[in-house]
Specification:
Oligomer: single chain
Strand content: 25-35%
Strand order of the largest sheet: 4-5-10-6-7
Largest sheet: 5 strands, antiparallel
Helix content: 25-40%
Order of helices and strands: EHEHEEEHHHHHEEHEEEEEEEHH
Number of helices: 10
Number of strands: 14
Radius of gyration: 19 Å
């Protein structure tokens, strides 16, 4: 086994093009998953690459570097529409995990209960993929293809997340349900971005649910039905939740998860709508 920690993106991509390697950023998912077994194959550590770090503003929106940590996101000066993402950042594991864990690592691990995915879906995030042959960009919903599966091709790295400017009057919220308050895998979670007009009626709505299907999902039918409603009048029906497919496990039954999600959505919308 060889351990590589390149200082430039070019060097990292060149090494990845030469051979298949396990890519590590914060390592907060990789090392616990390894358990007591010895590592096999080479490791490519991206944490020294400055080009993959940080949050920046561009003419077309926002850019979050792949190895930006959850602590950096939680502390960033971002518009109110990002409040759900910042709240989710504070729910990712412990403080130590937030200090080391990265936004791209959370996505590439592709857990159905990844805290970062629902708020990024509500912000219409796109994933920038880079290899030695160039770049391509995929909507986040297309990048995540299933449980622990992504659209990454051999030789590719996630280099950044690209987020368009949300409406200036919109605000985000994030609600997570777990068996305890801290250091917990989600039973169900909801993120929203809601904007209200001068009369207090919803004119912009994005709603995403995690931990209730193989991949977190936007609820497009609910989003359409929210337009014109007041946040305190929102009613979530089973038809709105039809795209979800929650499982029964030790943390909760499928019926419990659906009931919880309906309440979480209402709470998140009230919070984002200023209620």
């Amino acid at each position: 086994m060889a351990y590589h920690a390149p200082a430039s993106l070019k060097e990292a991509l060149d090494r990845l093009a030469e051979r298949d390697m396990r890519v590590v950023a914060g390592g907060t998912d990789v090392y616990p998953a390894q358990g007591a077994a010895p590592f096999g194959g080479d490791i490519l550590d991206l944490t020294r690459i400055a080009a993959l770090q940080g949050i920046s503003r561009a003419a077309e929106g926002w850019r979050i570097g792949a190895t930006t940590t959850w602590t950096q996101i939680a502390r960033a000066d971002l518009p109110p529409a990002f409040d759900g993402l910042r709240a989710a950042a504070r729910e990712v594991g412990s403080i130590q995990i937030q200090n080391a864990g990265t936004v791209a690592g959370n996505l590439c691990n592709a857990s159905p209960a990844a805290d970062g995915v629902p708020p990024l879906l509500t912000l219409e995030a796109r994933v920038e993929l880079t290899s030695t042959t160039g770049q391509r960009v995929l909507p986040l919903a297309e990048f995540l293809t299933g449980v622990r599966r992504t659209a990454l091709q051999p030789g590719e790295l996630v280099s950044a997340l690209l987020l368009p400017d949300p409406p200036a009057h919109a605000r985000g919220a994030f609600v997570k349900l777990g068996a305890r308050r801290y250091l917990v895998i989600s039973i169900a979670m909801v993120a929203v971005v809601i904007g209200c007009d001068a009369q207090g009626r919803i004119d912009h709505a994005c709603v995403a649910v995690g931990a209730c299907s193989p991949v977190a999902q936007r609820l497009s039918a609910l989003e359409r039905d929210l337009i014109g409603q007041r946040p305190e009048q929102v009613a979530v029906t089973l038809d709105h939740l039809a795209p979800l497919s929650p499982i029964d496990d030790v943390r909760g039954s499928s019926g419990y998860r659906l009931d919880a999600v309906a309440e979480q959505i209402a709470r998140a919308i009230r919070t984002a709508g200023g209620q």
